[in-house]
Every structure is written in C-alpha cells, then in structure tokens.
Write a structure and sequence with these properties.
alpha/beta, transaminase activity, Aspartate Aminotransferase, domain 2, transferase, 15 helices, 460 residues, Aspartate Aminotransferase, domain 1
C-alpha cells in the first residue's frame, strides 16, 4: 500500500492549537518536558484541555473533540456524569468530610460488590492507583511463596516502577528470540537487579511459556500479565486455561493485571470472559469513576498475610522491644479506601450494570463503520480488541496476537491518520487505543465516521 501525504496535516494541527503550543512552552519552564507524566506528552506538543462534557473535550483554543482517550479508559461514564457529581455531593454533605482516616462503611459496601463481581476475590485491599495495586500484588506473592523472582510477558505494562519497566516496548532486534525473549531495561535509573529478577515470557505462546516457567519454577513467585495485552490484544482461551494449569502445577501464583480490562471487557473483567480464576487480581481506572484508585483482590490465604495483629504495627514504637511487624506484610496508605472516591466508584458500577450492553453495542457499531470505510479505500486494517476497547492497526496480517506481531503495523501512517483526525475533531493521543463510554451514542458515532472519511480523503 502506498499512501501519499504531506506536512499540511501537521501544519493544520499547529494552526488549530496555537494556545496549546504557547502553554507547552510555558509549562517547560516549570516541569521537565512540560508534563507531569511522560504518557501525557506527544510530538510536536500535547494539547492542553480546559473542559470536558459528556463525550466531548474542549481545548485551550476552544476546539471541540469527541473524546476516545477518556483518560486512558478511566472515564467509562464520560466527563462530568450527573450521577457521579451527585454521588460526590451527597457523600460530602452527608458525611461532612472528604476523608476520615479511619475505617468507614463504604469500604465494606464496595468490597461486597467487587467480591460478588469477581469470583476469584475472597478479600480485597484498596490502594491509590493501578501501579500501587500491582506493587502490592507482587509483594503478596513474594511473601506467600517465599520466592523472589517474577515473570512478566513481553509488551505488557504493569506500572512505572523498576521491576515492571522491563521489556514493555523493546526494540525487536535487541529482544532475543521470539520464543525466549530477553529481559531489557526500558528506563534510566533502573537497578540491573530487577533485570536479573524479572523473567520475560512470550505472550500467546503456551509451549514456550511453559518451558521457561518449568525451568525457573523454584525461583518464581508469580506470573503477572495483562490478560488482554495493552487492553486490546486478546489471548486465546487455550493459552489462558493452559497458563492457569501450568502455574498451578508448578506452584507459581497467577496475577491478572485488570487495571485496563476490569469493567471494560465486562463487569467481571477478562477473567469472567475467559472463565479463569487467577490467584490475585489488580483493578484501577474505571472503578474509580475518574478518581485515583487501585484494588488488589485474591484468595483468602494470600490476602490474609497483610492482616494486622497485635505488635505488628511498624509505626507502633511502644512495642519496639517485642515487635512482630516483620511477621506481617506491610501495606498502608492515608488515602486507601477514600470515601469520596468509593462513592464515585459505587455509582459507576451501578450505572454500568444498567448500560453495559449499550457501550458494547456502540463499540461494535463504530468498529464496523471504520472497517467499511477502510475497505472502500482499499486500506488493510484491523480494529483489534474485545469489549469496549479497541485499537486501529494498519496491517495486512491476518491476526495480531502479541507484541512482535504488532510491530509489523504501519505506525507512521497511523500517526498521520491520528493527526488528521485531531484536525477533524476526534481526540485520542496519537497511536493510542480507543475507549468507549455510556455517553457515546449514535450522533457521536456518525460524526466520528464522517471525520474518518474526511481524514482518509486527505491522506489518500
């Protein structure tokens, strides 16, 4: 496929977003790269937003966009949902505060809801982000097994800390054989210790994965994975059930990182879709209703390692002579189980219980419309994903099932498409996946397909 495009697409972007450009220059004076998280940046500069409303975002230049980033999938009810706003106001008025710093009833109510939705969870702990959740899950696996190595899959992301910044987006020519990928450090400042203690596995290759796990079974505490890589590349049922069986046989815990897929594949996450119960599960994003939250849930005997007991408080100086703190897995956080956030989360789940079918139907309709447009243009693509997440992959390959197969896609052409779509009022960060919400309806889908058609006409 040969597609001709020019710099006019990028020039149009710069002309539309001049105030964002000026703000980015000002931000660079006070923050490294002008951003507070690397993920918020893209070349030539990120767009500064000032307002959200339902399915729409408005930038500093007053451009209006249909939002498909949705804060990286977190806002499944869209921006400023009235029921979320009402829940926040009610919680603060009735409770008289936004934070207790003590146990409260909403912690129990949310825990009941999650345990009912996720059969693999006997008990849960709250954290403040998906990253914190995976950190706790890993610590629990070390404490439970007495082993201190971890296996992860190539191309999978579990948070921006040392142990997990291994082989997230490695150069294929440096990453070793496909069936036995190397563990490569992906950030400055990462201690080589973590490279040595993190074993990288080939996603969707059960035979090779089983061989590696068997070789390292006496060292590995757990396998952690995104059951749907990056939220949109699904595995096969055979791989998932096989991985569950082999980890049980080898005495290795299985951790599902469902920060992206929890509630987006379905109310019970990817584990319900695949009918596989992991030992530990991490959640985040959607369940916070737009606020920071993380959750770890799992089998009772694993989770109870973190239960406090007499003399086990690492902060209790009065028991220093007989402290048993080292006998309990330490986990704490001032904002864990934040009542305002749990109120937003409970409301989010309640709305999704009524409207999940709507979200899935509109996602399927949008994917179908995009396929038809590209087909008419003779451009090969796949809308890879299940549930309410998908990504547009420009490729003539029959399937995309892992990180290396994804590298065959035409990323340069996709980036041009994304900038053309920004100019047409469709927002997602270039090259990112698309997420749907309850407020994306027929009108938004029709406008989106019109924008795609206009963008394709300019690019081809």
């Amino acid at each position: 496929m040969k597609v001709r495009y020019s710099d006019e697409i990028t020039d149009g972007f710069k002309e539309k977003t001049n105030i964002s450009y000026e703000l980015s220059k000002e931000a660079e004076k006070y923050m490294p790269g002008g951003v507070t998280a690397n993920i918020k940046y893209f070349d030539p500069y990120p767009i500064f937003m000032k307002k959200g409303d339902g399915a729409y975002l408005y930038d500093a230049d007053d451009n209006k966009y249909i939002d498909y980033l949705l804060s990286y999938g977190s806002l499944m009810l869209g921006h400023g949902h009235p029921e979320i706003i009402n829940a926040l106001e009610t919680q603060m008025k009735e409770h008289g505060t936004v934070l207790f710093g003590t146990p409260h009833q909403l912690e129990i109510e949310m825990a009941k809801k999650l345990v009912n939705l996720y059969p693999s969870m006997d008990k849960i702990r709250y954290t403040n982000s998906g990253t914190e959740a995976t950190l706790l899950a890993i610590r629990l696996s070390y404490a439970y097994t007495g082993k201190h190595k971890l296996a992860k899959f190539e191309g999978h992301y579990h948070g921006g800390y040392d142990q997990m910044l291994i082989s997230v987006n490695p150069p294929v020519h440096e990453a070793g054989p496909e069936s036995t990928p190397l563990s490569l450090i992906e950030s400055k400042g990462v201690d080589p210790y973590h490279q040595e203690h993190t074993i990288t596995l080939p996603f969707n290759n059960l035979e090779a994965t089983a061989e590696i796990l068997t070789k390292h079974q006496h060292e590995l505490a757990a396998v952690i994975l995104e059951p749907v890589q990056s939220g949109y590349i699904p595995t096969s049922e055979q791989f998932m059930t096989g991985l569950r069986e082999i980890t049980q046989q080898l005495g290795i815990l299985l951790i599902f990182d469902e920060v992206k897929t929890g509630f987006r594949i379905g109310l019970g996450g990817a584990q319900s879709f695949y009918s596989v119960n992991p030992d530990l599960t991490t959640l985040g994003k959607v369940v916070g209703g737009g606020f920071p939250i993380g959750i770890v849930g799992g089998k009772e005997d694993i989770m109870m390692i973190s239960a406090p007991s007499a003399f086990s408080d690492v902060f209790d100086n009065s028991h220093s002579s007989q402290s048993a703190a080292k006998e309990v897995l330490f986990h704490s956080g001032t904002y864990n189980g934040h009542p305002t956030i749990l109120a937003a989360g409970m409301t989010t789940i309640a709305v999704l219980e009524q409207e999940m079918h709507h979200v899935m139907g509109k996602t399927a309709a949008l994917k179908k419309g995009i396929h038809e447009l590209f087909s008419r243009k003779g451009i090969p693509l796949q809308t890879v994903g299940i549930g309410s997440i998908f990504n547009i992959v420009i490729t003539d390959q029959e399937r995309i099932s892992n990180y290396r197969e994804l590298q065959t896609a035409d990323f340069a052409w996709r980036k041009k498409l994304d900038f053309a779509l920004l100019n047409e009022g469709i927002y997602t960060k270039p090259l990112n996946r698309c997420s749907m919400s309850t407020v994306h309806g027929d009108k938004e889908i029709a406008l989106t397909l019109e924008a795609f058609e206009a963008a394709l006409n300019k690019l081809t």
